[in-house]
Write a structure and sequence with these properties.
Oligomer: single chain
Strand order of the largest sheet: 3-2-1-4-5-7-6
Largest sheet: 7 strands, mixed
Order of helices and strands: HHHHEHEHEEHEHEE
Helix content: 25-40%
């Protein structure tokens, strides 16, 4: 039986011009179902309607895939990026990035144990050997540094930088997914960090502001 969200997902992927592994669409739909099942017991996300979840979770995260791939390639890690997703919640965008990019090593970190457990379950059920979840405060992690660190509506830019600075590899970048960047938040970025690009995003089927704020340690 065809998944009720399959056509809308295929349309969204096509409108983004995304090239994904053959197994990715089914993995994304299975992931959507998994969030729905777990949401009945654990409050993983506030959004419950599958159609809204598709737009506001899956397509929202798929919209950043191409920009992140371009930056990974610019850093010389197109196929072997080590990425850390901070405050991952239900694995957004970490799980989606792991599905879309099997060559990347994606680590999701969250301070809430049930959310890390859910991401581990998703990795097992979806066969994502490149995905791992850590239940910890990001500043207390002991993993080797990462070439890219992402967050989605996690914290202010200054807190995001302060909490993850020690986790960023030399030559690495921060990619903060936000609705919009206010002048106050931009102004609070530390002087030793270069905010080098604010990349506007258009999420298929979603009439809302989205952007990626790109940063790196200043030279």
């Amino acid at each position: 039986m065809t998944h009720p969200q399959a056509a809308a997902l295929a349309q969204g992927i096509e409108s983004l011009g995304l090239s994904l592994p053959p197994q990715a669409p089914q993995q994304l739909l299975d992931y959507l179902d998994l969030i729905g099942r777990w949401n009945k017991v654990y409050n993983l996300t506030a959004i419950r309607d599958p159609q809204q979840m598709l737009a506001q979770h899956l397509l929202d995260c798929l919209t950043v895939v191409a920009p992140l791939r371009a930056q990974a390639a610019a850093q010389g890690h197109a196929d072997d990026l080590r990425l850390l997703d901070v405050g991952s919640g239900a694995g957004l965008p970490g799980v989606v990035l792991a599905i879309a990019n099997p060559g990347w090593s994606v680590t999701c970190v969250d301070t809430v144990a049930k959310k890390a457990t859910f991401i581990r379950q998703a990795a097992a059920e979806l066969g994502l050997k490149n995905l791992q979840a850590v239940h910890a405060r990001v500043e207390a992690m002991r993993e080797p540094p990462f070439q890219m660190i992402t967050s989605r509506a996690f914290a202010s830019l200054v807190d995001f930088i302060d909490l993850t600075r020690e986790r960023l590899a030399p030559g690495g970048t921060w990619a903060a997914m936000k609705a919009k960047l206010t002048p106050e938040e931009r102004g609070a970025v530390p002087a030793d960090v270069a905010l080098f690009h604010v990349e506007p995003l258009q999420v298929p089927g979603l009439d809302a502001e989205r952007c990626i704020v790109w940063m790196r340690p200043a030279a």
